[in-house]
Amino acid sequence: MKKTILSTADVARLFNVTETTVKRWADGGTLKCQKTPGGHRKYEVKNVVEFAEKNNFDPVGTLAMPGDDAYGPALQVAVLERAFPALVRIYVEKALTSGRADLYNLFSFLYEHKIHLWELCDLIIRPGMIEIGERWVRGELGVNHEHRASYETLDALSKLHSNILRKPSNGRTALFSCLGEETHEIGLRCAFYLFESEGWITHYLGARMPLTAMVSAVREVRPHVVCISATGNDNSDTLRALLKETNAVVCEVGGKLLVGGRGASPEFVQMNLCSALFSSAEDVHHFLTRGEKW
């Protein structure tokens, strides 16, 4: 299992500094740590990431991959060079052939090395799943492979959840769901984690949410924002009808409806079916960090 507690030697290797420097950071209070009964300093991954973000430090070294990982050396080089096509290839192979813990190890390793959440979503998972889908269309993979890769990815993201650095609560609330027969959750889950990392109070309803249940949830939670996935909905008329009723109740409670995915169209905003569209996790990141007033 991937460790979420790093030693002084691990942190020193990550930033290519001496262990004495790391201890000085810890003793000075700039890098949070805990001490074992034996006096050894231990560092939570989320605190190391926070330290790197606050001090604008980029990893110039890499941690060792857990166990006997055949991709270890190639992965370390790709991380240092930020070679995203290489990282996509590694992700695809792991999603198709490895166990859940192995894929989580990859995501955790990338997060430890300052691959941001939106980069993990947009530049690794998204192109990787597109490649898997194209290989299925060409008959190189079965639908079972595509489904397995999707669920393994969702499981690994869920396990990564505990490592994600979260800002203090901003008091704002967001609700996330897939309406109707929509089953594609990966993009929605990424948006959910991005909102949570920025201090939002989040409620996740998941796939195939009936309209009546969605309306009840909105009235109960009264969120500032509702995020809907429209990734795989092929019936545009049905989607428009669902969005029209959802947007009405979201506006009723003073919120905004945001829609993302391949099925989202600019006409949805023009027709007052939603307030804004997200075409990527980077869009979500920009929305959350540009100082929007609520």
How is the largest sheet built, in terms of strand order?
A: 5-4-6-7-8
Annotation, overall tally of beta strands: 8
In terms of DSSP E residues, the strand content is 5-15%
Structural class: alpha/beta
Corresponding CATH superfamily of the largest domain: Cobalamin-binding domain
Q: Tell me, what is the CATH class of the largest domain?
A: Alpha Beta
Oligomer: single chain
Nearest-integer average pLDDT: 89
Helix content: 40-55%
Low-confidence stretches: none
Q: Report the order of strands and helices.
A: EHHEEHHHHHHEHEHEHEHEH
How would you briefly describe this protein structure?
53% of the residues lie in helices and 13% in strands. The protein is α/β, with parallel strands linked by helices.
Write the layout of secondary structure elements.
Layout: E1 5-7, H1 8-15, H2 19-27, E2 34-35, E3 41-44, H3 45-55, H4 72-81, H5 84-97, H6 100-112, H7 117-137, H8 143-160, E4 173-179, H9 186-197, E5 201-209, H10 211-221, E6 225-229, H11 236-252, E7 256-260, H12 267-270, E8 276-278, H13 281-289
Parallel strand pairs: 4-5, 4-6, 6-7, 7-8
Antiparallel strand pairs: 1-3, 2-3
Helix pairs in contact: 1-2, 4-5, 5-7, 6-8, 7-8, 7-9, 7-13, 9-13, 10-11
Please provide a written account of the structure.
Helix 7 (117-137) runs antiparallel to helix 13 (281-289). The protein contains 13 helices and 8 strands. The protein is α/β, with parallel strands linked by helices and 294 residues long. The protein has helices at residues 8-15, 19-27, 45-55, 72-81, 84-97, 100-112, 117-137, 143-160, 186-197, 211-221, 236-252, 267-270, 281-289; strands spanning 5-7, 34-35, 41-44, 173-179, 201-209, 225-229, 256-260, 276-278. It has 3 domains: 5-55, Multidrug-efflux Transporter Regulator, Chain: A, Domain 2; 72-162, Methyltransferase, Methionine Synthase (B12-binding Domains), Chain A, domain 1, CATH 1.10.1240; 173-289, Rossmann fold, CATH 3.40.50. The chain has a 5-stranded parallel β-sheet with strand order 5-4-6-7-8, with helices on both faces. Strands 1-3-2 form a 3-stranded antiparallel β-sheet.
